[in-house]
Amino acid sequence: MTSKKKNKIEEPTEAYEVTPKSELTSENLHPVLVQLLEKSIKEIEEGKTSTHEEVMKRFREKFPLQK
User: Fold this and answer.
1) Domain count, the chain
2) This protein's superkingdom (predicted)?
C-alpha cells in the first residue's frame, strides 16, 4: 500500500433536500421571520433604504482604516 492511498480521506456523502421557492409559503416560515420580512418590504416601499455608497460612507466615517 502506498502512502498516498493510506492517507486518503473521503468525505461522507450527504443527501440534502431543497424546497423549491414555489413551495415555500409563509405557513412554513417562523412567525418572527414573517414579521421581519413584512417590515422590510414596508420600509422598501416607503423608501427607507440606503444605497451601497451611503452605507460605505457611514462605515468609513465610523471605522476609519489606515490607507
Assistant:
1) 1
2) Bacteria
